[in-house]
Amino acid sequence: MQELFVDTPEQLQSLSDMLRGSEWIALDTEFIREKTYYPKLCLLQVSNGEVAACVDPLRLDDLTPLLDILYDGSILKVLHAARQDLEIFLHDYQRLPMPVFDTQPAAALLGHGDQIGYANLVKQLLDIDLPKDQSRTDWSQRPLDPQQQRYALDDVVYLGQLYVHMRGHLFDKERLQWLAADFAPLTDPQTYYPDPDTMWQRTKGKQMLRGRQLAVLQKLAAWRENRARQRDLPRKWILKDEVLVELCRRMPRDAAGLSKIRGLEPAQIRREGDNLIAMISEAADLPREQWPKDKGRPKPLSGNQEAMVDLLSAGLRLIADHHQLSPQAIATRKDLEKLVRGEADCAVNEGWRQSLAGKTLSALMQGEQQLRSVDGKLELVAAPG
């Protein structure tokens, strides 16, 4: 395979010409985001099985020739754990490259475990050991040494081989179509930029708040999210979670009250104090019916419900073993707990998981299926009558 490091417009055009018309392109990125809200693209790796290249966006002002290839809807883009890579394209170029194939959920459908890492998957399927010593590299620094370039290239050199291998096995097992539901969120912009009004639900420590305090939290968390996006800064650089929760708990109505909040710096009070006080006052005065409701942790299961989850776990393991899958690829214990509680948003009742396991597990829970031991082995059978 030809391997390239591309950092001039002429090299980029040549690479794009070589990639044009490919059936698929393996794609990966290296980025940093410790000091920003959005990931900062530092390196772009591509391969079509015949050529593999590292493209340096820090040396190239215009990636249009390559982007035209990556946004070609007739070319499949193959990634591993695709979400953060795709977020870069959505932010930097305002659209997502489609269609995509993510080898991580695909691996789960071939029995390689849930959320397997790239290096482990390469080892399992190709019996190749990849070095992991560059995982903490600052990819914004130049020049990149040969070890860094090798590490980056390997991320796409073997990715294409994984795809070809997995595609064949998924086709043989008639599971390719199962992946549509797993890939759908990757093509939805809301996956990457959730509604700011929902960000209060992700705040660490929110369980300490009640009633109107949650209304204040919703207001401040949405403001923090919008401000972080506008200024391209990490959320915690705008307001740390513990400061956010303390503001909601105390609900100060003046600068003196703000000054008593530990972690809220005097400079920030001078800069944002009036705005914070206004938002706290506005949210605290909302009528009760407009307060958000924190579902919090679900009520503990009863002993009978715990036993039912254990029963479903045994049934799930039998189903997974029959289909040569990891049980976690079908449903987690939390999913089974939701099924027992009768909650609507249960992954095992959606898409291929429902047809493969959800219907059987529901039947087991309702007594229409049962587990029985035959010669020391468990099996799922229809209940008598």
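(the above was protein one; protein two follows)
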Amino acid sequence: MKAGKQGNGRLSAGDFTPRYLPIAWKIVAVVAILTLLGIGTLSVVVLNQVTNVLNNQVRAQAELTLAPIARTSAELMLAEDHLTLETLLNSLVEDGRVESVTAYAIDRGAIASAGTPPSPAGGIGEGVWPLAASAEPYRREVRFQDVQVGYIEAHIDTTPMQELIRNTINAGIATAIGVFLLSLILAIDISKRLVRPLERLAHAMRERIRHPVDEHGRPLPMVHEDEIAQLTAAFNNMAQDLLRKDQVESALRRYVSDAIAQDILENLDRIELGGRAVEGSVLFADIKGYTALSERCTPEELGRMLNEFFGPMAECIARHGGTVDKYMGDCTMAVFGLGGDDNHRQTAAQTGLALLETVAAINAEREGRGEERVEFRIGLNAGEMLAGNMGAQDRMQFTVVGDTVNVAARLVTVAPSAGMVTTQYFMEHEQVKGQFKTEHWGTHELHGVSEPLEVVRILAAADATR
């Protein structure tokens, strides 16, 4: 079965549907081929053995038949008693043991014969299997006192033995056909018995993908307690685990960025407290006058309002390559450069301007509905920070900490409504120098920062048209 994936990475039920020759027919085909090969090999071996045995019997019969004639013919050849010799040969043919026989004198050639020699085609009757040699005559020397005086050639009648071979072959063919048909029937029956549980398993897999549990939320029950049932149970557990993993992964991506979620999932054995120093940019965006706004709204209204802004703002941050680190009440914290973006300062500044535009668009819709505007302000900073898991061993959070983060959090408090500020040092970096229109926003003493900072407001990109 060929497994595939849908666009969301989940297995679909259609991915377990066979798109090729069913396994039952493959089993039948393999058994049929193996049976044919076995029968063919066995038939060749048996026929060779039978043919060799019959040929040996023919030669033995020829020796037994011609040996007495050869001993008797020696004196007749020397006496040139051809008539007696021919009578002797005729009696041999009439006895039915040979088809033809000829006596040859060593110096005179053929001197007597009887019977009809077989034709060059073999002399075998129609319908007889020509497996035993009969076209070549059998020769026996005629000796008198150890001196060869001639020889006798005879064609032995092999028709009975050929009939025996034919009957053997016919019986073998009938047996082979019976064995093949029987093995085919058994193969079909066994393959069905083997494949039927697999088909149930495949059906259960498809149903498990469609409906993991019954209407009461319980896993679908197993039908048989055998190896297939154990495999089905293992698959059910795997399906449940995959479902939970998919749900956990989907939930995890709602709390952290895709990049961080992927890093966590790929390094589950290395989840521990601590982090690494990185160079990046951090952005804080919070609501101007949030305390007063929360006093005028019910908790439900406040929650709907925050979600109305946070959703589009998160999409805007992700679209520009940033990561939403966390939400703190009315404040959104985003980080840039954790994925190796060397131009994170410019990316963060562009994202901040895009966020202000996103908030302005949402406020325009709110005013159209007769609702009050909600103005955000943004603080931006860049530098070295520690990125990693912070908290306790049993409850931790992936975040960034350091002086860079603290300064960004303080900068947002001096930013104007619908405005974004950063430090003069930030704007003097080669990544952003000359890339944005700015204005001096004064020198501010920020809470928790030892030295006053020159603050700059970022108005727009340098190439933006008004």
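Reviewer note on protein two: The chain is about 50% helix and 20% strand.
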